[in-house]
Amino acid sequence: YVLIEAMAHGCALITTDAPPMNSLVTSGFNGHVVPAGDCEALTGRLEHMLGDPGTLMEMKRNSKLRYDETFAPQVVLPQYHRLFEAVVSGYP
Predict the structure, then answer these.
(1) What is the mean pLDDT of each run of 10 residues along the chain (92 residues)?
(2) Cα end-to-end distance, the chain, whole Å
(3) Would you call 73 exposed, middle or buried from its count of C-beta atoms within 10 A (0-12, 13-18, 19+)?
(4) Are 61 and 9 in contact (CB under 8 A)?
(5) Closest Cα partner for 26 from 54, 70, 56, 66?
(6) Where are the beta strands (DSSP E) in the chain?
(7) Element (H, E) at 24
(8) Among candidate residues 10, 8, 16, the one with its CA nearest the CA of residue 58
(9) Which residues, at least 6 apart from 36, have a Cβ–Cβ distance to it below 8 Å?
């Protein structure tokens, strides 16, 4: 949930290549994915993000956009509602 909360606040993300976190980040779009344990890759990506304010701002916008399209309550709640209706309607 930490990455989803960060996306909700418009943060650019950096995560490892471990599932499921890596599925939330598209490198170069809303952040970067680095190999787990690779400190040099992490440092390089941080330097890249901090050294290029335009790209960083774009990643922040893209992160918020992905949240709004995928995880925002107005998107998720109707999906849960349909799921619960399907479960309840299956009972006599």
Answers:
(1) 96 96 95 97 96 97 98 94 89 68
(2) 36
(3) exposed
(4) no
(5) 66
(6) 13-16, 31-34
(7) none
(8) 10
(9) 16, 17, 18
